[in-house]
Amino acid sequence: MTDLATTAWLRAALEHPPAARIEVGTNRASAVLVPVLRRPDGPTVLFVRKSTQLNRHAGQIGFPGGAVDPVDVDLVATALREAHEEVGLDAARVEILGRLNEDRTFVTDYHIAPIVGWVVDPPPEWRLDEREIEATLEIPLDEIVATDPAGWLEFTAYGQQLRAPRFEFRDGTVVWGASARILIDLQQRLRNSLAGR
After folding, report:
1. Beta 111-119 vs 65-67: how paired, if at all?
2. Angle between helices 3-13 and 177-195 (to 10 degrees)
3. 141 lies in a domain?
4. Residues 64, 112: Cα–Cα separation, whole Å
5. pLDDT (tens digit, 9 = 90+) per residue, 97-113?
6. pTM score
């Protein structure tokens, strides 16, 4: 798929943004960047594996991101700043394409704004903040569109029985929880965009 076709597909999928409820200054507000990378064999989505030394989300696979900082003017700024801090992604390389539905982590209660960005010129090497990030992983965008959740995890939080989707990709990568719900939103939007062509 060409760069032009990829970005047109993503823009069409994101042309109806969700209502934004999270604002800078909201308690436990956060943002993640969903980076779609230009690669010779086709676009991929960048994930990070959190350090196993963290108190929260240790070892989990998700997107670069984190809590709003007082210096952030908006949630896009949060997502870009966190991606730079965690993996060394320069904001100048990122073209923001839109937002996905807001989500939350049930255990830590972070309210998440997912921001989708097209990275036309990914760096040759990622510069990881090893206190937070153990590794980066890339999953082909077409595989994300084609892969349904392998199952659902059930757990109890805040006295409620909850379910979280769980993806298993060809390389063995497992994504679950809020990151998987964000993926489902992206996947459904991209599938709908394809169906509308």
Report:
1. unpaired
2. 110
3. yes
4. 12
5. 999 999 877 667 778 99
6. 0.91
